Amino acid sequence: MKHPLGGPVADLDSITVPTHLLPADGRFGSGPSRVRPAQMQALAEVGTSVMGTSHRKAPVKDLVRRVREGLTELFALPEGYEIVLGNGGSTAFWDSATFALVREKAQHLVLGEFSSKFAAETTAAPHLSDPSIVRAEPGSAARASVEEGVDVYAWPQNETSTGVMLPVERPNGAGDDQLVLVDATSAAGGVAVDLTQADAYYFAPQKSFASDGGLWIAALSPAAIARAEEIESSARWVPEFLSLTAAIDNSRKNQTLNTPAIATLVLLAEQIEWILAQGGLAWADARTRATSGLLQEWAARREEVSPFVTDPSARSQVVTTLDLVDDVYGAGIADLLRKHGIVDIEPYRKLGRNQLRIATFPSVPESDVQALIEVLDHVLDALRNDG
């Protein structure tokens, strides 16, 4: 096998992984994430009574109510905050926020591929001033700072492409009229958060919540709700599909503007209630700390492996990125492991690095992470002996 980044590598195709080393479940993807068998069973049982029925009627509205009430409990929702659902994923929420939350100018922290996309939206918006963009090199963190003229501060809690995690906290000195919007798509449900530090904590459900895409969910503060009402009652044109006030009004009725993917709602409701039954967000936070910690400890033991995120305080709990030395081909190892049922640990394609990217969302137990480490040890030892 030829290493695309230069130099020959040992023949990975000659390596066989013993069955007894394999994890019980080999799905370690950063999204969509593994779905627990119990969720699929619930989909089979509950889905027969709601699939193919009106989303304006009680059975589907009850699913939305379960989601909203479950998230209210999970996040210990502050007084006045509301759980709002909308059609489309986080991409749709970026557009909604561009229309209905940014009054004139936003400040964006750009850490990688996903955080750059919201910045691109407000940059292109003809009704807004050019945003202030604070960039960090991939694998490193940035911090928001108060800036005159900025009315929205936006960043990801977890940059999925690089495995960098940022705190959710208002910039020091930010005014009451400056909103904080946090993209929590790959962190929500797996990382502790104080929602009083954000005005829009939004996410799609295909990561920690082990569901499908096509939906956005946001915990909105009273200030964010008021901003949306202010802007949407002004002369600014807002497409109905992207209207936050429409999403808020529908969510208060436990429904969405357009027909939602009902299977997504079933999987999401089941996952929320499962996390709550395990001990809630504190349990999920402890679990992802433990599982990602196992991978970081393993990287410290292997000379072929090093953490991509060099600052320990910025390392993600839910997406671990590990660089490999040049003569160990990460994508080749991922291909080998896929043949053995261990899937989706490839590096993020646009990052272009020789690394592994391993997700440790709440559905991933320590036992499977430990088994993955043993498999990786087996492969790396075989490569070393072959070399």
From TrEMBL:
GO terms for biological process: glycine biosynthetic process, by transamination of glyoxylate; L-serine biosynthetic process; pyridoxine biosynthetic process. Its EC number is 2.6.1.52. Keywords: Amino-acid biosynthesis, Aminotransferase, Cytoplasm, Pyridoxal phosphate, Pyridoxine biosynthesis, Serine biosynthesis, Transferase. Pfam families: Aminotran_5 (PF00266). The keyword RNA-binding does not apply. Pathway: Amino-acid biosynthesis; L-serine biosynthesis; L-serine from 3-phospho-D-glycerate: step 2/3. Its cofactor is pyridoxal 5'-phosphate. It comes from the Bacteria. Gene3D superfamilies: Aspartate Aminotransferase, domain 1, Type I PLP-dependent aspartate aminotransferase-like (Major domain). Residues 48-342 form the Aminotransferase class V domain. GO terms for molecular function: alanine-glyoxylate transaminase activity; L-serine-pyruvate transaminase activity; O-phospho-L-serine:2-oxoglutarate aminotransferase activity. InterPro entries: Aminotrans_V_dom (IPR000192), Pser_aminoTfrase (IPR022278), Pser_aminoTfrase_mycobac (IPR006272), PyrdxlP-dep_Trfase (IPR015424), PyrdxlP-dep_Trfase_major (IPR015421), PyrdxlP-dep_Trfase_small (IPR015422). It catalyses: O-phospho-L-serine + 2-oxoglutarate = 3-phosphooxypyruvate + L-glutamate; 4-(phosphooxy)-L-threonine + 2-oxoglutarate = (R)-3-hydroxy-2-oxo-4-phosphooxybutanoate + L-glutamate. Belongs to the class-V pyridoxal-phosphate-dependent aminotransferase family. SerC subfamily. Catalyzes the reversible conversion of 3-phosphohydroxypyruvate to phosphoserine and of 3-hydroxy-2-oxo-4-phosphonooxybutanoate to phosphohydroxythreonine. This is phosphoserine transaminase.
